[in-house]
Amino acid sequence: MILxxxxxxSNIVFAFSNMEKINKSFRFKTLSDxxxxxxxxMIKSMLDLYKFDDVIISSVVPVxxxxxxxxxxxxxxxxxxxxxxxxxxxxxxxxDDPKTVGADIICDCSGAMIYSKEAIIVDLGTATKYIYVKNxxxxxxxxxxxVSISMKALINNAALLPNIxxxxxxxxxxxxxxxxxxxxxxxxxxxxxxxxxxxxxxxINNKDIPVYATGGLSGVIVPxxxxxxxxxxxxxxxxxLDIYKKNLVA
Length: 250
Description:
- It is a single chain.
- The protein is an alpha/beta fold.
- The chain has 2 domains: about 80 residues, Nucleotidyltransferase, domain 5, CATH 3.30.420; about 150 residues, Nucleotidyltransferase, domain 5, CATH 3.30.420.40.
- The strands form 2 sheets. Strands 6-9-8-7-10-11 form a 6-stranded mixed β-sheet, with helices on both faces.
- A hairpin with a 2-residue loop joins strand 8 and strand 9.
């Protein structure tokens, strides 16, 4: 059993795999101020559910990467593999500075290549990323503030607006403060996704390219979009597993 770990700015996803599929996943809040021992106490009950032999980590939070790497070495005597220099990903990076490409983007690309040779990926996480990949080559990404960030910015900068939940209002033109905010953020995000997909399709001259969505809020936003978008909840983890397989010693 392999333990896959995707460390994002907001959440860490742990998933167990038998090398063929994702068996079970767990989500924890990313806490940059915790030690490896504190993390061990937090996640021990989850780790005890399966016997795992190896660990691979995709991360955009270096301090947490170091923390978890130490945890698995100290408590399980496992040297975790980290997606980065020295790890085969199978993804070529056609960008100005390949060193700046996040491990999450590389995993998304790897995951998308399981399903098609060319794709637009919409990753609705802390940031909303619009990724273009073709024939295992990453050609670039557009990055916008995520849905949660947009909501927090609205609340923090408008004194009279309350905290609200992510819930779909019945109408776009709403008649109370909470529904108005929900409409603006949620329908507005869906419209942004549609607009960006249309622009990318036009730029690459391919109106029939498949579009995949992943990330914690894909289930909220994608159903409101007009483009045909397939939700791949575990796309990043599937890509991470594929990268792990590429690095097995023959």
